[in-house]
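Note to self: keep these together.
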Amino acid sequence: MNGKPWPDPGDPAAAARLAADFAARHGPPGEALDALLRCLGGNSPYLADLALREADQLRAVLAEGPEPVCERAIRGVTKASPASSSTDIAKILRLAKRRVALAAAVADIGGLWRLEQVTETLSHLADACLSLAVQHVLGEAKARGELRLRGRRRAASGFVVLAMGKLGARALNFSSDVDLILLFDPDMHPYNADGLSAIFARLARELAGLMQARTADGYVFRVDFRLRPDPGSTPPALGLPAALAYYEGQAQTWERAAMIKARPVAGDVRLGAHFLEAIRPFVWRRHLDFAAIGDIRAMKARMDAHHGGTDGLLGYDVKLGQGGIREIEFYVQTLQLVWGGRDAALRAPGTLAALRALAAAGHVPRALATKLEAAYRFLRTVEHRLQMVQDRQTHALPGDAAGLARFALFMGVDAAPAFESVLLDHTRAVHAAFAGLLAAPASVPDLPKDRGVARPWQAWLEGRPRSLRTDRARELLCELLPAVIAVMERQPQPDAAWARLDELIYRLPAGLQLFSLIRHNPALLERLGDVLGAAPWLADHLAHVPSAIEGMLSPHDIDPDPAASLAAQLRDAGALDEALAVASRMVRGEEFRLAVAELDGRIGADAAGLARTALADAAIAALLPRVLAEHVRRFGHVRGGGIVVVALGKAGSREMMAGSDLDLMLVYDHKADVSAGQYYARAAQAIVAALTVPTRDGKLYEVDMRLRPSGSAGPVAVSLASFELYHREAAWTWERLALTRARVVAGPARLRRRVQAAIRRALRAPCAADVLADTAAMRARVHKNLAARGALDIKLREGGLLDVEFCVQALQLQHARSPGVLRTVTRDALAALARTGALPAADAALLIDADRIWRSVQGLLRIMHGRAIPAALTLPLAGRIARATSLPSDPEALAAALDGMAARVRNVCARILGETDAT
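Structure:
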């Protein structure tokens, strides 16, 4: 550390006095220490006093570095006996504070530590001091006969200290208050229930005295209890039931934001963890809470009105001023409240960690996150230097030019103008971001008076829909109406689009949430307009399940890990019905998001199919253990058994479309097969019921079990032995064709492997009939008995999707023993068949192309019209199909292209299946 350049002294005379005084008391300082002393003496009277009082520690910092000095000081606290006298405890705490404060200040001023190491070290000290102080005051209460406690460390005392604010986030300031909430559990002290509040109030006062009372040794940290529930009318320590009731029923948005940083630091930390777990649903709401932005805006406005302002940088408050630290913290916490209920990765208590998580998730542009991080580091450094001057909790720059010039030197900047320039660059960037997030609503717009057609907005503004009966909801609507009008009038059929929006508005239980979503996500309005204007089926779904719109707000079109996302959201779910509601909300939102992305042409049929199937797999895998746990609770546990879920059809081939059913088969295994049949039949019914039960957000899925052995006539759950016997001796060709798509998606790992192996054996077993001839006969019966309902009946038209699937599956059965042929995904199976020579490459290419086109067209038809089949191609429909398939956008040309594709597929299938009309 010798030769380390320290900032120049702002007061050379004071610097010289400290150097001389130190030399007189402790001997010549040497060159490096002399430079440090002059920096401290010329910039900080507080640190100058510490340097004289803790000369040995200062020399140790220069010789060893700040880390060992801080570690020894904190270790002295952690190893101290709580049974010591209050006077001795106070002395131990204050000595540690002096030494850590001096070492951390040197590390900060000299650039030896990054911001995080400075604030974490100060927080570590505060944690240790609070822990020792709490142990001591609890011991004193026990000695007075007020409490009955066990254990030296009071780990189960029923009394906990929650750290809030910067201490909770392990980001304590150099001269900061520690914001604390004190809680006690009355149930752990039943012997003195009537007097507990007074006892713990006295403990709070004793704790505060140990921490903040000034003695000859200084003080430790100032204590602030004002973040507790309703501080004006509650005691400093609050009973757990009262605190829970408050947060569940009365707490405000700013209190939710405060709880982001809460953590138990002293006393009964298990009690603190239990409390934070209990209020997690209050802090992290499952729906996207953009309405919180308005609450934060109002709170910031009140703060600005109270704080006032300054002219220029003289007296500027780096914490509360425009573009200051608080605006960065509010910006980050607001986005955490909005998105954190759905993404646990965003719940980091530290501002910088949360900012990085928000950027990684796409909620903050990375360039902006970089700017905000740089500003936060700079402003926190300024804050620390301000507080080092006199050890005061100040955040204001000097109010005179000479003082500002001296402070610039303390910051290591040669002149005040250079310091001002850097500070202004940071604060302007911060305030621009903050103002953009919390921009206030506009006034009531001038709306068109006569458009020649009826429009519903007048009834909305009068508050007729229940969703618009609050002033705030109508205020947001007023701001949004010009943009809404512009988007709706651009739709191909504006009258129909307005009618669908009107239905949505009237169905909403409250409008504030939707309007807040749109207000803070302008692109959402365009997407909503597309849905209302072009996709009646999606619009109807949205009207019935308004929460589905949240799925459109993710910065990504596809969730890369739906299993992890669902697991995070299910953490807060207790009973099975609550878990089903959470899963349904997520699935409906994600399904809606995928449908809109597919409608807009941002993702294709292949990617959408994989994403929908991954979502279904995640829902089944997450809910199966919960359903079975409830089944065990009701009917007991059968040892040695298990049940798995097998997906078939489009779910098995990972090609699910909007509105696809789940084709499922449930297979169980148990040694006592006869007695277990009824048990697992009930379990299977419970599984199906869970997947199909109506919730507030609709059903998870429709489930079709007809592809199980013996179809609807067979048992709802089949034993593994019965499955193997059936497919060995009795399965029909169509059942074996369906089995080519079978995937085991959930259940015990060992049983999953066994069932998957049994499926593979069944597919590779010799066929009793000629598979190709049998398939040709089935195809003919289908086309005769289930005639297509027009050219847009993509599944059933000749040469359509079903024909492609018949050909692929028949070839898979015929060549099942060839390596790689048994692929569940149609396009992968076709490619494998071509590689093995079972299918000419040109035929495989045609069928792969046809499979993609048919699924693209059918997917868009489902999204826009549900299961209804339009009589003909419209211009909007043709345009979207063309974008998804690269086919012509003119309806007539597109219809001709689809007919040509169908004819080519029909000819290839006839040739593959040996039909007489092959050409």
